[in-house]
Specification:
Helix content of chain A: 25-40%
Radius of gyration of chain A: 23 Å
Shape of chain A: elongated
Largest interface: A-B, 47 and 47 residues
Largest sheet of chain A: 9 strands, mixed
Oligomer: homodimer
Number of helices of chain A: 14
Low-confidence stretches of chain A: none
Structural class of chain A: alpha/beta
Number of strands of chain A: 15
Mean pLDDT of chain A: 95
């Protein structure tokens, strides 16, 4: 018998409770011991929920129960979640988390603590919702020297961009629709400004390259400045705009990690990832490119990843940690400013101005473009070279082109 | 120290030797003990190879070496490979295999034997080349009741179909090109007749649904009868032709498994999988659809999966098996004849004949169609109902439409 407590009875927490119950027989058979939901910690009561009788309000009930083996943390944030995770690990309980902010910010110390206490700290659900990615990355691709991770890591922004591309909605209209459909929060900042993607690329980069990467080491740009004009210009040259999180291993071993919208060729498998779906491509020296695709968020997909971790922890009660990486530091990352790529530029200016600045570039066309607007793709160059070359042009949107 | 022997120094075997050497430092660090290639078994000598000094010709050298821990079987087929695998497991050695034919035919008994001997029998490389699929299926998606596996499982046929679709090559010309590029064997039968896909869907189905599925329980149709006319008609209705292996859990718990070319909507993520790439979609009750994409064959991608298994076996020397399923039997599978779906029909006959037979179907058009040819998509029906309805039409190509 393995006893589980869920911290936080919100969307993910209630999904975990539902899945543990619905697929209970199947789960017990796979784990080869009964997995029982014993407590749900929340500040609220849920008298009408079938799980109402499991609600507790005091974390110390869970912390002090010697029969309690696994704590599922779905609280989010880094204050209470950090406190409870630390206390649970110190009390000899394995912890399973869907909290990307906590893992991206305090993952290294929590992994160390779990190792020291001889328990597991698992967080497959923190990246890509239900898509299996962290375990394949650390186990199945272990024979590779990995060189790059690149992914569409946020469903909300991908939904907004998809609606801008296919339905011609403005950013604001697409955001409002996403909120109406429950795909975006009332305060969508963390999604649309790229912070959610940033946390996820930190975790992916740490697993792939072996050192903790902190969110403040990752330059992050969201999609709020992407306009329908940009979508139209991208379409005119067979490309789509997607928000990507990237972590690229440099020859000196440092990791160039950043989040920004990019133009992608329509033939790139990531370009076909629509709506709230996520996809993560991994490049390795032996494997070439592999891609993992699926629902990056949502109650049951995320719960699916959490419960798989619970099952794994249940099979390895009091055994060693499964995911690990080294400490962070100033020597881990490198600015993307040195990264050479073609750029998409939409600017106030003229075709002559574009040619004077960037040579023989082809100007892009869109219906209804004002006459003082010019858009084009540059040759490969660094951002500094781009800024320097701009000449008479006043840039309005500047986006990297993925090659 | 963990000692490894490779059986068979062909494409995959030499890739494994290369990868173990090239990424040796990285591998040793991850496994936390040195992983050493000790023997390579082959009937030939390789005096010019850097691995020439590891060649042995007598399996009993490997079998009787008490220091030898892991045997990598890349021989292929089911005769010598079965004998050596059985003897290796009986001698207390873990076995890692890329041999889909052996796993699909004798997987259940070999898994049982490995369990009995307390060693591992791992075969991630047998499906999808380097794409991590078996471990994610059995571990990361373990919280789900899985309902369907559907995949492009063979790179050779996908290359041929891609060239027919995009370059307008006939089947024969595309096959010849695939052979010239090293993507198809001199005797391409196992690929183009679907047997390779069949073996892979057997393994995927066994892991997903828990019982051994034998290749002779899986109706298998290749792509040799697919013509450019079919490709053109599919294109005219926004679809692509892909060879799919499918395993679908039926309400009674049986598995409907088969291999056949299908028409897929261009928006389906599988439709965008081109050239020698493979992709596998998995449906689960919590996760919805997830897809795994990458190079399904080739020396280093396949070696990547083999070496990941070697690393996993090395970390769990003399521990329990990791993949498992129950015995096969007549009660495991169900014929796809009962499966209801729309059909693509290209027939000798007329539009009137098509309407008389199938009601208000829209006839498809292609340039240069002879006047006695008609093509259309039927409403959803079983194969028996389709055959019965055919009326005055003489079918030339009949393909399922994936919905």
């Amino acid at each position: 018998m393995v006893n589980v407590a869920i911290l936080g009875f919100g969307t993910v927490g209630s999904g975990v409770a539902e899945l543990l119950t619905k697929n209970g027989a199947h789960i017990d058979e796979k784990v080869e011991t009964p997995v029982r939901l014993k407590y749900i910690l929340d500040v609220r009561d849920f008298p009408d929920s079938p799980f109402g009788n499991k609600i507790v309000h005091d974390f110390s009930v869970i912390e002090k129960d010697p029969e309690l083996d696994i704590v599922v943390e779905t609280i989010g944030g880094t204050s209470v979640a950090l406190d409870f995770t630390t206390r649970a690990l110190c009390a000899g309980k394995s912890v399973v988390s869907s909290n990307k902010e906590l893992v991206a910010t305090h993952g290294y110390e929590l992994i160390q603590l779990a190792a020291q206490e001889g328990v597991s700290y698992l967080f497959e659900a923190s990246v890509g919702g239900g898509i299996p990615i962290l375990r394949p990355l650390s186990q199945c691709l272990a024979a590779n020297e990995l060189t790059e991770i690149c992914g569409i890591l946020n469903g909300t922004t991908n939904y907004i961009l998809t609606r801008m591309i296919h339905a011609g909605l403005s950013f604001d209209a697409a955001l409002a629709e996403a909120q109406a459909n429950g795909y975006a929060e009332k305060d969508p900042t963390a999604d649309i400004e790229g912070q959610d993607s940033c946390r996820k690329i930190c975790i992916l980069g740490a697993i792939a390259f072996g050192r903790h990467i902190y969110p403040d080491q990752v330059p992050t740009e969201g999609i709020t400045h992407v306009t329908l004009a940009d979508v139209a210009y991208a379409d005119s040259c067979g490309k789509k705009i997607k928000l990507l999180g990237r972590a690229i291993r440099q020859p000196d071993g440092r990791v160039c990690a950043y989040v920004a919208p990019h133009l992608l060729d329509a033939a790139n498998p990531l370009a076909g990832v629509e709506d709230v779906f996520n996809a993560i491509t991994v490049k390795g020296d032996a494997i070439g490119d592999v891609m993992f695709y699926g629902r990056g968020a949502g109650k049951l997909p995320t719960a699916s990843a959490v419960v798989a971790d619970v099952m794994d922890a249940a099979r390895h009660i009091r055994s060693r940690k499964r995911m690990e990486w080294g400490p962070g530091g100033d020597d881990v990352t490198q600015s993307p400013d040195g990264l050479v790529c073609p750029w998409y530029v939409r600017a106030r200016g003229t075709a002559d101005g574009a040619h004077a600045a960037f040579g023989d570039v082809s100007c892009l066309a869109r219906a209804g473009a004002p006459c003082e607007e010019v858009a084009f793709l540059t040759p490969p160059m660094t951002r500094a070279a781009l800024n320097e070359a701009m000449g008479t042009l006043t840039p309005e949107t500047v986006l990297r082109v993925l090659v």
